[in-house]
Design brief:
This protein is an all-alpha fold and about 100 residues long. The chain has 8 helices and no strands. It has one domain. The two termini are about 20 Å apart. The mean pLDDT is about 85.
Length: about 100
């Protein structure tokens, strides 16, 4: 798991919180960027000096995040796959936009 994936998992929190995001149709990328502005600002400042992190950021997409949930956060993966709107909500998210300032 790369550093950027760790940051994403840190921002997501608990299964209950994920259910709230789904129920309220929260734009997760916008929410994360607003709530963790400093953390993402710091990442954006550091990433250009680390070519590997640039490649990691470019590789982040819905499929990679879903795989990450399945492997590292089965509790969140279960919420996504069992909530009636879980996968619909998840597929509408644009995780690749997390690091658009790169």
């Amino acid at each position: 798991m790369n550093t950027l994936e760790q940051v994403i998992l840190l921002c997501l929190g608990t299964p209950e919180r994920l259910r709230e995001y789904i129920d309220t149709d929260t734009d997760l990328v916008k929410y994360i960027k607003e709530k963790y502005f400093y953390l993402f600002g710091l990442a954006v400042k550091i990433i250009p000096s680390k070519p590997r992190l640039i490649e990691d950021a470019k590789a982040i997409n819905n499929e990679s995040i879903l795989k990450l949930f399945k492997e590292r956060r089965p509790d969140l993966y279960t919420v996504l796959t069992t909530h009636p709107n879980g996968m619909i909500w998840f597929n509408a998210q644009r995780f690749q936009d997390l690091f658009t300032l790169i």
